[in-house]
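Today's session is about reading a structure prediction critically. Students often jump straight to the picture, but the first step is always the sequence itself: look for stretches that repeat, for charged clusters, for runs of hydrophobic residues. Only then move on to the predicted structure, which in these notes is written as discrete structure tokens rather than atom positions. Here is the chain we will use throughout the hour.
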Amino acid sequence: MGEGAMLNESEFKFDSGAGGQAMKKDLHDRIETFAELLFKSRYPVFFTGAGISTESGLPDFRGPDGMWTRRDKGLAPKPSKPWDSVEPNSGHMAVAELQKMGKLKFLISQNVDNLHLKSGIRPDLLAELHGNLTKLRCSRCGKTFDKSSGRTACPCGGRLTSSVVDFGQLLPEKDLFLSYEHSRRSDLFVVVGSSLVVTPAADMPREALNAGAKLVIINAGDTPFDPYAHLRFWEKISDVLPPAVQRFKILMGVE
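Below is the predicted structure for this chain, in token form.
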């Protein structure tokens, strides 16, 4: 599927009628529904884009004031914090809280800002599809190392280069494989801060839907998957994800 392509409903097994009704609920009711979906799920998988990091002071790309949106309007990018000075915000920490409770099964991220790892997400539960600004990747075996390690070569003999994926480059094979695998295993797929137009990363919601998962989208802008969402939030991530996780903890009896 190309950039900005719209999806054909016949591609999915999901009937969006129930999702349309859920999308009309007010915020409080939708948060309650989200918490209940988390509570009932056996294999929740989260997918994050640049939108989850905007409240940490980093720009997104296709949001109302995103980098590509401003570029298309002929405007200069808005100034942002240096990448290495930003810290995780309440959205990142809410996902990390689900991990601490043993609820998060896997996290797929398009972000290169290292904030999920900073928040405490375990590397084995994270696929960074576009790489990480703080990591080097072996050109031979694909293993990653912290830039701070000072390494210039991998023990296998391969050369270390930036792990960040540039336009036209292939995504890291292991991360891509794990993303497809866990998307297909999910029964609840939660998109946070992504416009879902960059492929193959944006193929993951389709994989989840076709496997029978329920889809939740939290994003300020429209996405091609909105008609298929069981639950849709346009509000700020900090107004949705932390209270939903808090409500989930109450349902779990830990608050």
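Discussion point for the tutorial: The radius of gyration is 18 Å.
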